[in-house]
Amino acid sequence: MTTTLTIRRPDDWHLHLRDGEMLKAVLPETTRHFARAIIMPNLVPPVVTLDDARAYHGRIMDALPQGAAFDPLMTLYLTENTDADDVAAAHASGLVKAVKLYPAGATTNSASGVSNLDAVRGVLERMAEIGLPLCVHGEVTDPEVDIFDREAVFIDRVLEPMRRAVPGLRVVMEHITTADGVEYARTGDGDLGATITTHHLMINRNHMLVGGIRPHYYCLPVVKRARHQKALREAATSGEARFFLGTDSAPHNDAGKESACGCAGVFSASNTMSCLAHVFEEENALNRLEAFASLNGPAFYRLPPNETRLTLTRQGPVDYPAKIETGVGPVTLFDPGHPLLWAVSEAAA
Ligand code: DOR
Ligand code: ZN
């Protein structure tokens, strides 16, 4: 049986770091294992312009733990007022690696998102021209559509028409949660990627709802039925280049989660690599963990893979704290509900 596994240092292609005290507390949880991450722009107010991204990048660099080698890859939050020239300048600067599309009202801090795609057509066309990827939160917000169907409906109503309307646009389907998402991702060639989160590989809606409601499993897009989880596990462990890791680690403090109207988000930065080794071992695919966590993402983003390495060891139950303390209250770490046997034993920066 394999008991150690050395892979290129992984990257996280979808991460929420927040700002201020929360940023300070969660950043080391990511930099411990990951070399780079695509940083989500849904702050309040959002990161909309190149200047906003520069300023936020500066705050992240200031919050880095001493000695950490970490490269935050910045994104811009697409609004109906986004200026195509600013987007092109952001791309040319090298600092900004993607633009994020939130349908208005779809999730946390998405009020400034897009209601009318025609309003951003010029920006999308410019992005297609310069090869800047669009990261898409793929859920419709139509109140008539059941929350468990919102991803599948988005693909038909929005994603496919958008990709037809803007040929050449490079798109990342963020945090896919359904067999429909997997299937659609497979219709693309090199211009369509899909990230998959750690928690969507480990839990389905039964874990969230049977025997009591577990607010720390609530996220958006919400976890679906077991057959979708199975499709995601098959996709992630397939080795196919279009699928790569985006944890969507999204910290909220316990007060925000454990509430009559709890926030969406699962915080998984600290134990993601242990979780993934667990899943890939269960799927007899440990030899494809590196593709998912360390190779496919950089290839999509046209960046070199990391030169440094990370070693995982199967050493028996690993202790992770239940919570991390932050200046704005405790944040509960994702708990898959069973022991994790793989530990990161070496992660030289
Ligand atoms: O669960 C989620 N949390 N999904 C999102 O799309 C946003 C994120 C957040 O920012 O908390
Ligand atoms: Zn997210």
Structural account:
The chain is α/β, with parallel strands linked by helices. The chain has one domain: TIM Barrel (Alpha-Beta Barrel), CATH 3.20.20. The protein has twelve helices and 13 strands. It has helices at 20-31, 50-63, 84-93, 121-130, 150-165, 179-185, 198-202, 205-209, 226-236, 254-257, 272-282, 289-300; strands at 4-8, 12-15, 36-39, 71-77, 96-101, 134-136, 171-173, 192-196, 243-245, 309-314, 323-324, 331-332, 342-346. Strands 2-3-4-5-6-7-8-9 form an eight-stranded parallel sheet. A three-stranded antiparallel sheet has the order 1-10-13, with helices on one face. Helix 3 packs parallel to helix 4. The longest helix has 16 residues, at 150-165. The radius of gyration is 19 Å and the shape is globular. The model has no long low-confidence stretch (mean pLDDT 97). The site of zinc ion (ZN) has 5 residues, from loops.
